[in-house]
Amino acid sequence: MTTLPILTTERLRLRALRPDDAESLHNAFGDVELMTWWSSAPDATVDDTRRRVAANSDSDAYPTWAVTLADDDRALGWVVFIPRRSGIREIGYIMRRDAWGQGYAREAVSAVIDYGFGDLGLRRIIADTDPDNAGSNRLLETLGFTREGRLRAEWETHIGVRDSFIWGLLADEWRVSRTPPRGE
Questions:
Q1: Which residues form the signal peptide (predicted)?
Q2: What is the pTM of this model?
Q3: Dihedral sign from CA coordinates of 16, 17, 21, 25
């Protein structure tokens, strides 16, 4: 089992997901509206969320950070960073509704991107979203991802067969976006 490093930002602490995060994360995974764009149905019970969290908290296939406030260890959401091929990872994220609109997702995802391109030396990070998930698509675009394609009828989900947007971000693009213009 790979040990995930603790990542910190000005307001957040990202630490390895633990089984005891299930209760807090059920506020996200049990939320029917929030789970509309997820590839699986919302969790009906906390036990369902426990199984979901257990699968990710003990997996090299799905390395997952719990996103917490710097001064509060309760999980607001998670960021998963799935190895795909050499030099490439797929990023995914979810935040509880009470954490929306505060920039936490952007801050957490940025920290994982920094880790991926910096510490891991990745060349590319990808993401896969539902075309109708406006919030997630806007976040990826804001972070500098390029929409590279649309896979038609890609996912069979709890709301039916869905298309998928494929997003990509290259290490050089991230470095350029993080470098302040000369003279600042």
A1: none
A2: 0.93
A3: positive
DSSP of 90-131: EEEEEE-GGGTTTTHHHHHHHHHHHHHHHTS--SEEEEEE-T
What domains sit in the chain, N to C, each tagged with a CATH number?
A: 7-175 (3.40.630.30)
Q: Which residues contact 27 (CB under 8 A, 6 or more apart)?
A: 96, 97, 98
pLDDT digits (tens, 9 = 90+) for 10-27: 999 999 999 999 999 999
Reading the block at residue 51, the tokens are 């199984």
The first and second tokens of residue 88, run together, are 């490439």
Q: Which of 31, 26, 25 is nearest to 66 (CA)?
A: 25
Q: What is the mean pLDDT of residues 38-65?
A: 92
**Residue spans of beta strands (DSSP E) within the chain:** 7-8, 12-16, 64-69, 72-85, 88-95, 124-129, 146-157, 160-170
Q: What pLDDT does 180 receive?
A: 59
